[in-house]
Design a protein that fits this description.
The chain has 405 residues and is of the alpha/beta class. The chain has 2 domains: 277 residues, no CATH class; 69 residues, no CATH class. It has 12 helices and 14 strands. The strands form 5 sheets. The chain has a 5-stranded parallel β-sheet, sandwiched between helices. Strands 12-14-13 form a 3-stranded antiparallel β-sheet, with no helix packed on it. Strands 1-2 form a two-stranded antiparallel ribbon. Helix 1 runs parallel beside helix 9 and helix 6 packs antiparallel against helix 7. The C terminus is likely disordered.
Amino acid sequence: MNELILIEAYPIKDILKYLLQDKTTKKNIIFASDSYIDYGEEYTAESQMTETALLGINSCDIQPRIYKTSAEQVRRTRKKAEVFTPAWIVNKMINYCDAEWFGHENVFNFESPTAWITNIKPAEFPEGKDWKAYVDSRRLEITCGEAPYIVSRYDTSTGEVIPIDDRIGILDRKLRVVGENTYNEEDWLKWAIRAYQSVYGYEYQGDNLLIARINMIYTFCDHVEAKWKRKATIRELKKLANIICWNFWQMDGLQDTTPCGAPHDDSLQMSLFDDDNVTENESPYCRVYDWRAGKSMEFRDIKKRGKGMKFDFVIGNPPYQDETTGEQKTFAPPVYHLFLDEAYKISDRVEMIHPARFLFNAGGTPKPWNKKMLEDTHLKVLYHEQNSCNIFPNTDIKGGGKRYI
């Protein structure tokens, strides 16, 4: 089980310092969580994650959520709204996106109630679209955690490993299409890199973000070994790490800024790939990279009309309520509607899991917001589960109850 993440071995150990980069601050990502404070002063929420902290004598053990103790999982669910989505739900949601893009269903697999059967036939593309357009389609997973919507090495809710041919993540599907339509290693590598350039995600907590980045590296290595019967080179992995660190960044999703402000330790140096335009604000606005335009920009600028870069699909499982308003409060205010509103600014197609109470004009969401959503003719309920425990077992989310996609 513990072999899902091996920081101290190839390929991660060789490129760990690159995977820790924060492209906005030109320092390292921070823990942004007090989960590791027992290890010492270098493990506070505001501390940068370093190679020493992860590989040194007194290093902490970064592992997927499924390996954390039950008490720690409950605590992180309460304090950080950390609820990981089962792979069958992830697959169902991505299938909805692909059905719209392709114009028909069952492109990559056939769903069963809580699983799927892989469609082994090569993907067929509709008139006016080709495989290259699919690879380049920009897709963003919000509050991505370990990035289960992007890569599916394992089911994040169980830890069960998923064979490479049966994986269902957005990037997994893109790499499958690349493999079906390229016939030499040079072309495969070119379009595999473009696939990585087209997927994005942001996350608040540093350990989750690092695991997401590591999962993307492992995914590349898995495909190189399966397709070309060799190991990925360190040069290839460094190039990929630069893309991943730009596209998967640490951010407060409601403020568009780095968590806890900018780190103040100036001793850590970044790579030559970094953009020169860096803000020195206390809480800098996060930057992302538009690979087609060849430039970086502030993420908040994407929300402005006429700024060019948009996402074809935004997908995810956002926090449902704010649990940081004090232990004595009996009401946790909802926040999922805020994530929805922000997502609509960067894409016309948004698909998320969230409570359904607003559909009955109930719950804590503002009444005007409920009215706006209920009157929106573009809003569709794609899947409804009456009992949330059927999707998120052993998880009590106040104000949740029903879930809609």
